[in-house]
Structure formats: C-alpha cells, structure tokens
Specification:
Elements (H helix, E strand, L loop, with lengths): L16 H7 L2 E3 L6 H8 L2 H11 L9 E3 L9 E4 L1 H5 L7 E5 L11 E3 L24 H11 L2 E3 L6 E5 L4 E3 L5
Antiparallel strand pairs: 1-2, 3-8, 4-7, 5-6, 5-8
Length: 175
C-alpha cells in the first residue's frame, strides 16, 4: 500500500495513464510493510541462515522491492550489477529474490553471466534508451561470448541468491 512505482526521469513513453502503466516496474520498500513477506521471507529462519552464512550476525536489509512484470507490458531490466547502481562502494552484500509466479524463458526470467561476480564494480552507463544505469553494452557482449548466460527459471516460492557484483538481466515479458 505504501509502495510507489519507479520514478522515470527519462520519461521515454509520455505521461498518459497508459504510458505510466506500460513502464510500471516495482514497488519500493513494500516488503517491510507486509508482515507476511517480512517475517516469512526476509527475516524468516531459512533466509537468516543464508544471510548469516555470508554476512555473519551483522545483517542490514539495504533495499527491498516487488518487481512487477505483467504479460505484454512487463519491461526489461538491463544488464547491471546491483552494487554498481548503489554507488556506495559496497562489495560484500548478497541479494535474494523469490518468485511469486513462474519465471520462465518465455516470460522473461532472470539471466546471469556465470563468474561475472569476480569482476570489479563496473561503472554503469545511462544510454538514451536506458531505464536506469546499465553495464556497458559492448562489455556485456564480450562477457556473454566468453562465459555464456544462465537462465534462472523458477517456480512460485523458489528463491535465488547472488553476489551483488554478479551481472544480471531480465528481458521483457512477451507472453
């Protein structure tokens, strides 16, 4: 209820209700306001065990959101490193995502470049058609040619965790 859609400083699709609906992507800070999500996922016993494995007992939830990717209008999220967007130099955090609906190749599941978390934090670029900063497109092509791409298909309730330096992306939902 207190979540809000991304602000879109580039506003590439106009300001009509239809245009806003087409680019709606996520609800920020939604999870902390939902006891079900907060207590069973973010601070649930299983997630805390994973977090403690990577971080010890000094745990901070840095960011949370609910990504929305409806059929035919769900927009892509460009290739990026999470810590490359945070701009604070953090290199240790990890990320977790839980699918609420099936995530498949057909509807735009997340994609990762294996081993890319071993790279430096790469300065992100804001291209004219970007929705936010993204990894340089020529470097992404080189990394994919060298390491390939892993498609992270998931069933509802599945969780994936990754290092904040891992290069990842999700295409539009054309289903």
């Amino acid at each position: 209820p207190e979540g809000r859609p991304d602000t879109d400083p580039m506003d590439p699709m106009g300001d009509s209700p239809e245009a806003k609906s087409a680019r709606f992507r996520k609800l920020g800070n939604f999870c902390v306001l939902s006891p079900l999500i907060w207590h069973t996922f973010q601070t649930g016993e299983k997630m805390l065990a994973v977090a403690r494995y990577f971080l010890g007992d000094n745990i901070l939830v840095k960011f949370n959101s609910v990504f929305v990717k409806p059929a035919r209008t769900g927009s892509p999220t460009p290739w990026h490193q999470d810590n490359g967007l945070w701009r604070d130099g953090e290199t240790g955090p990890f990320n977790a995502w839980m699918a609420l609906d099936p995530a498949t190749r057909e509807n735009g599941c997340m994609q990762f470049i294996p081993g890319s978390h071993k790279t430096e934090i790469v300065p992100h670029v804001l291209y004219a058609d970007s929705i936010h900063g993204e990894l340089p497109r020529d470097r992404v092509k080189e990394m994919i040619a060298r390491h390939g791409v892993h498609h992270q298909e998931m069933a509802p309730g599945d969780v994936v965790c990754w290092h904040s330096s891992l290069w990842h992306y999700s295409p539009a939902n054309p289903s």
